[in-house]
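User: ok so my PI wants both of these folded by tonight, can you help

Assistant: No problem, let's get them done. Here's the first:
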Amino acid sequence: QVQLVESGGGLVQAGGSLRLSCAASISIFSFNRMGWYRQAPGKQRELVAAVTRGGLKDYVDSLNGRFTIDWDGAKNTVYLQSNSLKPEDTAVYYCNARVGITNSAIDYWGQGTQVTVSS
């Protein structure tokens, strides 16, 4: 069974940085894509950043380069480096791993880690 365990969330002041980690129970190269989503109170979950097995990275436009997704295959871990944090970045951040690339793809989720940015 696939397990994704996030860590690294917390409370940070505006302008600060956090590094989120997502450790997978199997090789991350088993997935076609891994990514980070976030969900703020009263809002829909949104994709923040993703990386494909081939190394292609994609980010939501509104980040303006503040976040970086990366991975370590030896540790089966995906990271989200978040810099210049803003109060509007406050949300629960979820790690996602996807197997498949069509509508029949299977998504796995972590339990989420809270990020709170104070002004």
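One down. Here's the second:
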Amino acid sequence: QVHLVESGGGLVQAGGSLRLSCAASGRTFSRYAMGWFRQAPGKERRFVAAINTYGDKKDYADSAKGRFTISRDNTRNTGYLQMNSLKPEDTAIYFCAASDSSMIPAENDYWGQGTQVTVSS
């Protein structure tokens, strides 16, 4: 089992940047693909970005392309989401997830508790 803890959220003005971190403990982090998802108030949780175990394959939602960068450091058991040019519509709770069976984690994989990102206009 993998335990995930997100950090790095907060309040930022539009156009600003944040870097989210996802610290993993438990089983070997490098065996798991990792993804970031977000859930805005009153909306369903949606995919943002994913990265494979080696970090050489990445996938992004259209809303994240060109602004967000997913990465990982397996030596630190940590994944990251660098978010630039933030917009008010990026406001959401951001979750990281890990999967040993798919590059994009599913609901029945491992999930963190989330970190709040608020972008003011």
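DSSP finds no helices and eleven strands in the chain. The chain has a mean pLDDT of 96. Good luck tonight!
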